[in-house]
Amino acid sequence: MTLTSSNSTDGVPSSEGAAQAVPGKRFASPFAVQTPAGAEGWQSMYPYYALLSDERREFEDGKFWFFDGMHNPEPLYPFDTIMTENWWVAASQMSTRVWPVPPAGGIDHRIINGYLYISPNAVTDPDEVAQRAQEFAVRAGHYYENWDEIYEQWVAKATDCIERLKAIRFAPLPGMEPESSVFEHRGVYSTYDLLTSYGALIENLFEMGSYHFEMLNLGYGAYLTFREFCQAAFPGISDQTIASMVSGIDILLFRPDDEVRGLAKLAVELELSDIVLGNDDPDATLNAIAAHPNGSQWISAFEKAKDPWFWFSTGAGYTHSDRAWIDDLRLPFSAMRGYVQALLAGEDIRRPLDEILAERVRVTAEYRSYLPTDADRESFDGLVELARQVFPFVENHNFYVEHWHHSLFWSKVRELGDVFVAHDFLDDREDVFYLHRNEIYSALYDLNIGWATGTEARGVTYWRPEVERRKRIREVLKANPPLPALGIPPEFITEPLTVMLWGITQESVQEWLGVDGQDGGELRGVAASAGKATGRARVIIDPEQLHEVEDGDILVCRITAPSWAPVFSRLSAAVSDVGGIMAHTAIVCREYGLPAVVGTGFATTSIRTGQLIEVDGNTGVVRVLEDVSA
């Protein structure tokens, strides 16, 4: 299974809007990607700085770009670019201006046919790397030496940011300014409140976005350093063996699933099992439990668990369409039914944490014993201890940022959408996401002008047809999926997030180019979690499909979200298009003891639901054994 590539500068445009290419040494040029018929003018939905440009053609055509299906699997909504634009700065500045990571530059972004492509920069000048290393040692050393204290401060900052987000309110402008504005001599009025509330909302997102990466690159950096030591000291050691030495650490991303397990256990204890198992609809389940004599105790536990643990996005949290458990209870309630059935059958529903910890101790001791000198063992001990210390943040930040905060953020934007509906700018609150955040400033001022003057605002007639145009364009772009990569394969990939999170390495890029001759029945990726399993594929493109998962299925997806954790107890293995050894799919599978291969590039487009497949998490190979028709 190979990604097509091109010998030419521009590749060969296809009639379907994607640049098809022929075998060779490079991927298709980003400039060869044609606009699909019906999507003309898509560029107007996005800021100029996120687009390819003729003025920078030589530079942009000479870079390696890969599709970020991990965070944005579909064409970007104009408003949702706030997330990508945030981390474009926030993640990049940590590697370039704050620490800086010696061999790593920032990560460039471009939107091509609505899809986000990114490109890591590398620092290759030895003198510059040495200079940066000195600066990095001082700055990062301070964080590593005071990690636990700084992490505690980080939690306080993140929680405060969330509390301030909760306090932001949006409401339609009143028919008449309240008397309180007059008699309290405020001097500023509802129009000012509306604009400043929106400004506070945007600033709050960028504040949390900055916290997101304050410690993250250091977490990946510590793990990468440990990984490099192991690869040098133990030639041929696998990535999952290295990862097993830091596995078994309880992290917040498992807490929501643990809460669901606890609710299942309580339901059995309170003799509510029949109610839980007898209703597919969460609301019906809640109503029936509330009417039961023992129901109040369970409802109380449910309400306590729900906030904050059900602010758990069903996706990466980077798009407004990724709704949280608290918005849609079907996923946690489906998982709860499975846990109740398992408990009634006498099964242990706890995660196999003790087994994973025991394996961690065994593997660490085994490899430590191979080291020839006390100095080597001392280095090994220090590196593995640091990797274990920083690892919880690498995952825990996700709950505070992408799940709790971002899910709340999207709900606040919907409140703002209600304001535009009330003032006749839009028909539906969801339409607000078709405006870029900077356009919303203009729309709000237009709204204020109309309210202040009594003249109908221009937005009443302007925004509806524009939103409809953008909806049509986005649907066309969505029907034309992107190529996984474009441009010239890189000589160096040294950016930590690119390697650890996306799994993009020189080796994986070469496999995408097909130099290893992958055939149509085999995919190769990152061996992310050890073991081998055979089962029927369950291809999941949208979280809505998670309810279709059956016991023993092998999950095939672009990327998993942490909130999918309850589904993992039903799986026999997992495969993803994107991801590296520290992607969520990899981490969750290791903690659940499931074989996993990530970063395959093409699993969701080449495997069909129902096919019998084999997943070898030891070698990173996925094989189709039997077609769906069998």
UniProtKB/TrEMBL annotation:
Q: Which UniProt keywords apply?
A: Kinase, Pyruvate, Transferase
Provide the GO MF annotations for this entry. kinase activity
Membrane spanning residue stretches: none
InterPro entries membership: PEP-util_enz_mobile_dom, PEP_Utilizing_Enz, Phosphohistidine_dom_sf
Identify the Gene3D superfamilies for this entry.
Answer: Phosphohistidine domain (3.50.30.10)
Give the region (Disordered) as residue ranges: 1-21
Q: Which Pfam families match?
A: PEP-utilizers
Biased amino acid composition, Polar residues: 1-12
Which N-terminal residues, if any, form the signal peptide? none
Q: Where is the PEP-utilising enzyme mobile domain?
A: 550-620
What is the official name of this protein in its record? Pyruvate, water dikinase
Organism, per UniProt? Geodermatophilus ruber
